[in-house]
Amino acid sequence: MRVIPALDLQAGHAVLARGGLRDAYAPVESVLVTSRRAGDALALARAFRERLGCDECYVADLDAITGGGRQRVLVKALAGLAGRMLVDCGAATAAGAADTVADGAARVVVGLETLPTFGALKAIAAAIGTERLVFSLDLRDGRPVLRPGAPHHGPPLELARAAVGAGATALLVLDLARVGTGRGPDLGLVAAIRRAHPEVELLAGGGVGSLADLERLADAGCDGALVAAALHAGGVDRRDLDAVRRREPAWLGRHSSDSR
Q: Superfamily for 2-259?
C-alpha cells in the first residue's frame, strides 16, 4: 500500500489540520524539517521525498476549497519538489480541473464538498481523462459534506456509486472530523466501499496515527493512505512506511479467490 503525505495549504502556509475545524488550523511544526519558519510547505515537500522516500503528495488548497483565491504560485512551486501531486483546489468545472493540471497536478481531486452535480464530475472526467481524476468522498463523522444547494443526497455508499457512474476510477474516503486526531480511520466504510467497487483505486484519509492503522487500512482494501499529523509528530516514520510498502494487503487474496 502506498503512503501519501498530505499538505493542507492556508494563506501561504502548510497548516496542521485537526478535526476539520479550519478556523483553528495553525502553521505546521514538524520533526521532519529544521526550518525555523513554521508551515514551510516547500521544506516539508522536500522532506517527504528525501527523508520519507515518498514520491506522491496530496495537496489541499484550503483557501480555494472554502471559496477564496487559489494559491497557484505555491502549488506550482510544490510541483517541482513533491513528486506526483494529487491536488484538491475546489475544482468544480472542466476548465478549473484543466487549470489544476496546468499548475502541475498529476491528478485532480474533486471533492464532494465542492461538487455542484455529478454531471459536472462526468464533464471533468471527460476533459482531463479518468486516469487523472480522484473523487473525494468528503465526510464529517461519517456524514457526507455537501455543497450548499447540491441536488445529490444519500449515504456514503450511494454517493460513491454515483461517482463511479460519473467516471471516477479512484475514490478517496476522507473523514474531516478524524483528520489530525489519531483516532483511526473508518475501516468499516472503507471495507464496504472496497466490496462494492473492487475495480476502483481506493484511498483513505483521516485519523491515521500509527503503523497499525496503516496495516488495517491495507487489509481493508486500501491502495493508498493519506497521512499528515502522525508524520509531523514522529508517530509514523520511514521504517513504518517501508514496512507498509512491502505489505501485501490481505484483501487481495480474498478478492482473487472470489473472482475465481
A: Aldolase class I (3.20.20.70)
Handedness of CA 46, 222, 236, 89 (dihedral sign): positive
pLDDT of residue 41: 97
pLDDT at 249 over 70: no
All cell numbers assigned to 12:
501561504
Say what the pTM is. Answer: 0.93
All cell numbers assigned to 247 = 505489505
pLDDT value of residue 252: 55
Residue 252 to residues 76, 153, 213, 224, 237: CA-CA distances in angstroms? Answer: 37, 32, 18, 14, 25
How far apart CA 169 and CA 183 sit, in angstroms, is 28
Q: Given this model, what pLDDT does residue 256 score?
A: 40
What are the extents of the domains in the chain? 2-259
